[in-house]
C-alpha cells in the first residue's frame, strides 16, 4: 500500500530551541524521499512527527489526505525502521516480523506465512526461528525492514537505517533498499547524514539545515544546481569563489555579485571557464581520480581543490593552465 | 603482596563464616547448650522444631507475606517505573524521589508510623498489616531496579511495538516485561528475601499470627538452645538453595 | 495536543497504585507520627497538642541524649571499619581471583547474608558469649584463665554489625571496581605514577561513588537497627532504636517514641545531605 504525504508549515520546539521552523513538503505516493542533513538539522524530529512519536507545536501533517493530528503511532498508516532496529530480543524472527499482525488480531498460521514471505523479500528465507542475537548487523537491519513492511504501511519511515553498518555493507544495503522499495511501492521517507547514501536511493533529496529545508530536488539537481550554499557544500566538496560586481580574486569570471561554485571534478585542463595558471601544492592519488590543491598565480591567497584525471601525473610545484567545464553562480539576495 | 592478598581473603572468609559454622555445628549438639564442648551428633533438635506447630505456622505466615507483598510491590513498582521512564510527567524528579524515599528511612520508623496510623484508624493488627509494611519497604526497591533496567534499548523496542499497533497493555505484556524479566525476577527475589527476613515491622504490626523472625525472637528469650540453631540452619539451607537455583537458572542464561 | 494528554493520563494511571500506596502507607503515617511527637502523656493517656517537650527532653535528658550519642558513635565506627575491611576484600576478588571464579568467590563471601537476620546476631552470641567458642578456645590453650566479657558489650554489637555490612559493602564496591577499565591504572602508570600514587589519585577517587553509596546504606540500616544491639549489646548501654522500643513497650509513651524517631530520621537526613553529591540511590 502507499499514500501521499503532506507536511504543512510544521514547527517544533524543544524548550526554547526551534527544532523545525515552518517546514512544508509534499511527497507523492510511492516516492522515495531522503531527508539529508547534519545532526541537529531537524530531520529526525520531522520523521518523529510523521510517525506520531511527537506532535508539532503548529502545522499539519496529512497522510493520504487525512490529518494526523491526535492520531497515535499505532493508528497511523506509518511504520518505522529504527536506527538501532529495536528488534524484540526475546522473540524469534517470525514473531518479530509477525508482531504487527498479531496486534491486529491476525491468526497465528497466517502471521507465520506473512513473516516467511517478508523474510524472503528481504533476503532471509528460512531463518524464521532464529533470534535477533544470532544475526549479523546487516541481517538485523533486514529483519527490522521486514517487520515494518509486514503490516503493509502506506508510508515507511527509516531513521538512519544503515547508520550502524560498516561502509561496505552500507553501500550494498542501500542498493537493496532501493530495490525493495521499487517492489513494494510504499512511500519511503529515509533519514541520513550520508550524501552518497542519499544519492544512491532517493527519488528526491530534501537537504535540511537548522530546522529549515535548504534544498529539494532529484539527486542530480541538488548536486549540480544547488539552491543554497549549504546544500552545495553538504552534497560534496565544492570550491567557493566570492564575486563582487563581476570581479573576483581570479579576475573577471562571471557577471553579478555572489558566490561562484565549482565542483572539483569540473576543473581540468580544458573547459569553458578559464581559471588561469595554477601552481600545484599537493597531490594525492584517489583511485578514480587525482585530488590536488592548487593556488592560482593571480590570487596567492586562494586555494582550489581539483580532481584531475587518473592518468594525469603531476608533482607538487608544477604549474597547470586550468579551466572549469561547469559552474554555478549563486547570486546574493 | 600476592601472598598477603590470599591471607587477607582467607581471614575474611574465616570471619564471615565463623558464626554460620558455629550455628550449624551446634544445631547437631547432643546436649542442652549450643556451646562447646561438642557432645556428639544428634538430630533431636531438628525433630523437635519440625514438630513445633507455632514455628511451622510462623514459617507459613512468613512465606505467605513474603510472596504476596513482593508480588504487589513488583507490579506497582514496575508500572510506576514504566510511567516515569516513558511518559514525561510534571515533577517527575520529585515523584521519583518520593517513591524511593522509604529506602532511606529506618524500618523501625516505618513500622512506628504505620502502627500509629493503624491505631488511630482503629485497624486491628494482623499478618496483613505487616504485609502492608513490607510492601512499603519493597516498593522502592522494585521501582528502583525496574527503573534502572529500562534503558534506551527497551525504550526503542517499546516504541517499535507501539508503532506496529500494540496498545499500552500489549506493550507492557509482550515487550517490556519479557525484556526486563531478569531485572524483575531479581527485584522479586530480593523483595521476598527482605520480607521473609524482616523483623521489626512484623514484630510491631502483627499480634497473634506472627512471622518466623518474630517467632525465633521469642525463642531467643528463653535463652540459648540448639533448637534455635536448628531453625537458623534450616532457614540458611533453604535460602542458600534458593540462591543457588536462581544463580543456575536465572543468571546463567546466555545473553 | 490530545496525544500528549492521552499519554499523560496513561502515565498517571500507571503511576497511581505506587503513588497512592506510598502516600497512604508512608507519607501519611510519617505525618501522623510527626503530629504525635508533639503530644504528651498525662498518666497513661496521650494528650494531643503542640508541645515540643519531647524534643527538649531528647536533647537535655542525659539518658535520652546518651542513646543518640551511642547510636551515632556505633554507627560511625561500624561504617568506617566495614568500608576499610570490605574495600581490600572487594579488590582482591576483582583483581586477584581468576575471572571465572569471581562470581563464586563473591557468592561465598556473602553467603551468611542468607541466614536469618535474627539468627545471625544470635550465632555471634554463641561465638562471643561467656561459654562461647572464643572463650572456650582461649581458655583451652591456656591464654586466659577467666572468660573475657565479650558479649553484652559495645564491641559485640560492632562485631555483629561489621559482619553484616562487610558483606554488603563488598558487593557494592566490587560492582564498582569491576566496571573500572584497567586502562585507568595503565594510563596512570604509563604517566609515571607508582602503585601507591595510582591507588590514591586514580583508583580510590573512581570508586568513591560506590563506596559513599554503600557507606550511606550501611549508616541508614545500622543506625535504625534494633536487633543487633538488643541481642549482642544487651541493656548495658542503649541505642536510639532500643530506647524507642522501650518508650513504646514499657511505658506506652508513643509521643516520646515518635519524637525520638523523628530525631533518628533527622540524623539520617543529615548524613544524606553530607554525601548526597555522590549518592546514586537509584543505581543500587
Describe what this molecule looks like in 3D.
- The complex is a heterotrimer of chains A (333), B (255) and C (284).
- In chain A, helix 2 runs parallel beside helix 4.
- Chain A is of the alpha+beta class.
- A six-stranded mixed β-sheet of chain A has the order 6-7-8-3-9-10, sandwiched between helices. In chain A, strands 13-17-14-15-16 form a five-stranded antiparallel β-sheet, with no helix packed on it. A four-stranded antiparallel β-sheet of chain A has the order 2-1-4-5, covered by helices on one side.
- Helices cover 26% and strands 32% of the residues of chain A.
- Chain A contains eight helices and 18 strands.
- Chain B has 255 residues and is mostly helical.
- Chain B has one domain: MetI-like fold (Orthogonal Bundle), CATH 1.10.3720.10.
- In chain B, 76% of the residues lie in helices and 0% in strands.
- Chain B has twelve helices and no strands.
- By secondary structure, chain C is mostly helical.
- Chain C folds into two domains: 1-28; 38-283, MetI-like fold, CATH 1.10.3720.
- Chain C has helices at residues 2-37, 53-60, 62-95, 99-109, 117-128, 133-140, 154-179, 182-190, 195-223, 227-233, 240-249, 254-275; strands at 40-42, 45-47.
What key phrases describe this protein's structure?
heterotrimer, B: 255 residues, mainly alpha, MetI-like fold, globular, C: 284 residues, 2 domains, two-stranded antiparallel sheet, 12 helices, 2 strands
Q: Layout of SSEs?
A:
The complex is a heterotrimer of chains A (333), B (255) and C (284).
Chain A: E1 5-14, E2 17-27, E3 32-36, H1 43-51, E4 58-63, E5 66-67, E6 78-81, H2 93-103, H3 108-121, H4 137-149, E7 155-159, H5 167-184, E8 187-192, H6 195-201, E9 204-209, E10 212-217, H7 219-224, H8 229-235, E11 239-243, E12 258-262, E13 267-268, E14 273-285, E15 290-296, E16 304-308, E17 319-324, E18 328-331
Parallel strand pairs in A: 3-8, 3-9, 6-7, 7-8
Antiparallel strand pairs in A: 1-2, 1-4, 4-5, 9-10, 11-12, 12-18, 13-17, 14-15, 14-17, 15-16
Helix pairs in contact in A: 2-3, 2-4, 3-4
Chain B: H1 2-25, H2 44-50, H3 53-86, H4 92-100, H5 107-121, H6 127-149, H7 152-163, H8 168-179, H9 181-197, H10 200-205, H11 212-221, H12 226-249
Helix pairs in contact in B: 2-12, 3-6, 3-9, 3-11, 5-6, 6-9, 7-8
Chain C: H1 2-37, E1 40-42, E2 45-47, H2 53-60, H3 62-95, H4 99-109, H5 117-128, H6 133-140, H7 154-179, H8 182-190, H9 195-223, H10 227-233, H11 240-249, H12 254-275
Antiparallel strand pairs in C: 1-2
Helix pairs in contact in C: 1-12, 2-3, 3-4, 3-7, 3-9, 3-11, 5-10, 7-9, 7-10, 8-9, 9-12, 11-12
Amino acid at each position: 500500500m502507499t499514500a501521499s504525504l503532506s507536511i504543512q508549515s510544521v514547527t517544533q520546539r524543544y524548550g526554547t530551541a526551534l527544532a523545525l521552523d515552518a517546514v512544508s513538503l509534499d511527497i507523492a505516493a510511492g516516492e522515495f524521499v531522503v531527508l539529508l542533513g547534519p545532526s541537529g538539522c531537524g530531520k529526525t524530529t520531522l520523521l518523529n512527527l510523521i510517525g506520531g512519536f511527537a506532535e508539532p507545536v503548529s502545522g499539519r501533517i496529512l497522510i493520504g489526505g487525512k490529518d494526523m493530528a491526535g492520531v497515535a503511532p499505532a493508528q497511523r498508516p506509518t511504520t518505522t525502521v529504527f536506527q538501532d532496529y529495536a528488534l524484540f530480543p526475546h522473540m524469534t524472527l517470525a514473531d518479530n516480523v509477525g508482531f504487527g499482525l498479531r496486534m491486529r488480531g491476525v491468526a497465528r498460521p497466517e502471521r507465520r506465512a506473512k513473516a516467511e514471505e517478508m523474510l524472503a523479500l528481504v533476503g532471509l528465507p528460512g531463518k524464521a526461528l532464529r533470534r535477533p542475537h544470532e544475526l549479523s548487523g546487516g541481517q538485523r537491519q533486514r529483519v527490522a525492514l521486514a517487520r515494518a513492511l509486514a503490516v503493509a504501511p502506506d508510508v515507511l519511515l527509516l531513521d538512519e537505517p544503515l547508520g550502524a553498518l560498516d561502509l561496505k555493507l552500507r553501500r550494498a544495503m542501500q542498493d537493496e533498499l532501493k530495490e525493495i522499495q521499487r517492489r513494494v511501492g510504499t512511500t519511503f521517507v529515509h533519514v541520513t547524514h550520508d550524501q552518497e547514501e542519499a544519492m544512491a536511493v532517493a527519488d528526491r533529496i530534501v537537504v535540511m539545515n537548522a530546522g529549515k529545508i535548504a534544498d529539494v530536488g532529484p539527486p542530480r539537481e541538488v548536486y549540480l544546481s544547488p539552491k543554497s550554499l549549504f546544500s552545495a557544500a553538504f552534497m560534496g566538496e565544492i570550491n567557493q569563489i566570492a564575486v563582487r560586481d563581476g570581479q573576483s580574486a581570479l579576475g573577471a569570471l562571471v557577471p553579478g555579485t555572489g558566490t561562484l561554485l565549482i565542483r572539483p571534478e569540473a576543473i581540468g585542463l580544458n573547459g569553458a571557464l578559464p581559471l588561469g595558471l595554477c601552481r600545484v601544492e599537493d597531490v594525492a592519488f584517489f583511485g578514480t581520480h587525482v585530488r590536488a590543491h592548487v593556488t592560482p598565480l593571480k590570487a596567492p591567497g586562494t586555494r582550489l581543490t581539483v580532481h584531475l584525471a587518473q592518468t594525469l601525473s603531476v608533482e607538487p610545484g608544477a604549474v597547470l593552465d586550468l579551466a572549469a567545464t561547469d559552474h554555478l553562480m549563486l547570486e546574493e539576495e | 603482596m600476592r601472598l598477603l592478598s590470599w591471607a587477607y581473603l582467607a581471614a575474611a572468609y574465616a570471619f564471615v563464616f565463623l558464626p554460620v559454622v558455629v550455628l550449624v555445628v551446634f544445631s547437631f549438639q547432643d546436649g542442652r547448650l549450643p556451646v562447646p564442648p561438642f557432645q556428639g551428633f544428634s538430630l533431636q533438635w531438628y525433630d523437635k522444631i519440625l514438630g513445633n506447630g507455632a514455628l511451622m505456622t510462623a514459617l507459613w505466615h512468613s512465606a505467605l507475606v513474603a510472596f504476596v507483598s513482593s508480588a504487589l510491590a513488583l507490579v506497582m513498582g514496575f508500572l510506576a517505573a514504566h510511567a516515569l521512564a516513558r511518559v514525561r510527567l510534571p515533577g517527575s524528579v520529585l515523584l521519583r524521589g518520593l517513591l524511593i524515599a522509604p529506602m532511606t528511612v529506618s524500618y523501625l520508623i516505618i513500622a512506628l508510623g504505620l502502627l500509629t496510623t493503624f491505631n488511630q484508624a482503629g485497624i486491628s493488627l494482623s499478618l496483613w498489616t505487616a504485609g502492608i509494611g513490607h510492601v512499603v519497604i519493597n516498593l522502592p526497591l522494585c521501582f528502583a531496579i525496574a527503573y534502572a533496567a529500562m534503558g534506551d534499548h527497551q525504550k526503542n523496542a517499546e516504541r517499535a511495538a507501539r508503532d506496529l499497533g500494540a496498545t499500552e497493555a500489549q506493550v507492557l505484556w509482550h515487550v517490556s516485561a519479557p525484556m526486563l524479566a531478569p531485572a524483575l525476577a531479581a527485584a522479586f527475589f530480593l523483595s521476598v528475601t527482605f520480607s521473609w527476613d524482616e523483623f521489626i515491622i512484623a514484630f510491631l504490626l502483627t499480634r497473634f499470627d506472627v512471622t518466623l523472625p518474630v517467632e525465633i525472637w521469642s525463642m531467643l528469650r528463653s535463652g540459648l538452645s540448639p533448637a534455635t540453631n536448628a531453625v537458623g540452619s534450616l532457614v540458611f539451607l533453604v535460602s542458600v538453595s534458593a540462591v543457588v537455583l536462581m544463580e543456575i537458572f536465572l543468571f546463567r542464561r546466555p545473553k | 495536543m490530545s496525544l500528549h494528554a492521552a499519554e499523560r493520563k496513561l502515565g498517571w494511571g500507571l503511576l497511581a497504585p505506587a503513588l497512592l500506596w506510598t502516600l497512604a502507607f508512608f507519607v501519611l503515617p510519617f505525618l501522623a507520627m510527626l503530629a504525635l511527637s508533639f503530644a504528651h502523656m498525662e498518666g497513661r493517656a496521650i494528650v494531643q497538642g503542640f508541645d515540643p517537650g519531647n524534643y527538649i527532653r531528647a536533647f537535655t535528658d542525659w539518658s535520652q541524649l546518651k542513646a543518640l550519642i551511642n547510636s551515632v558513635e556505633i554507627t560511625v565506627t561500624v561504617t568506617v571499619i566495614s568500608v576499610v575491611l570490605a574495600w581490600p576484600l572487594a579488590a582482591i576478588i576483582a583483581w586477584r581471583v581468576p575471572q571465572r571464579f569471581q562470581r563464586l568467590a563473591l557468592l561465598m563471601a556473602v553467603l551468611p547474608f542468607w541466614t536469618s537476620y535474627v539468627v545471625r546476631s544470635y550465632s555471634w552470641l554463641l561465638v562471643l558469649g561467656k561459654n562461647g567458642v572464643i572463650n572456650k578456645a582461649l581458655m583451652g590453650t591456656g591464654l586466659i584463665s577467666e572468660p573475657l566479657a565479650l558479649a553484652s558489650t559495645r564491641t559485640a554489637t560492632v562485631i555483629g554489625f561489621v559482619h553484616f555490612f562487610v558483606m554488603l559493602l563488598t558487593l557494592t564496591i566490587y560492582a564498582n571496581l569491576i566496571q573500572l577499565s584497567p586502562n585507568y591504572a595503565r594510563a596512570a602508570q604509563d604517566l609515571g605514577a607508582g602503585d601507591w600514587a595510582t591507588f590514591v589519585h586514580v583508583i580510590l577517587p573512581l570508586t568513591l561513588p560506590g563506596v559513599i553509596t554503600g557507606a550511606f546504606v550501611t549508616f541508614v540500616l545500622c543506625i535504625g537497627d534494633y536487633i543487633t544491639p538488643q541481642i549482642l549489646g544487651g541493656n548495658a548501654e542503649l541505642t536510639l532504636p532500643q530506647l524507642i522500643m522501650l518508650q513504646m513497650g514499657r511505658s506506652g509513651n508513643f509521643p516520646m517514641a515518635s519524637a525520638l524517631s523523628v530525631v533518628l530520621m533527622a540524623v539520617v537526613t543529615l548524613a544524606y545531605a553530607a554525601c548526597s553529591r555522590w549518592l546514586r540511590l537509584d543505581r543500587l
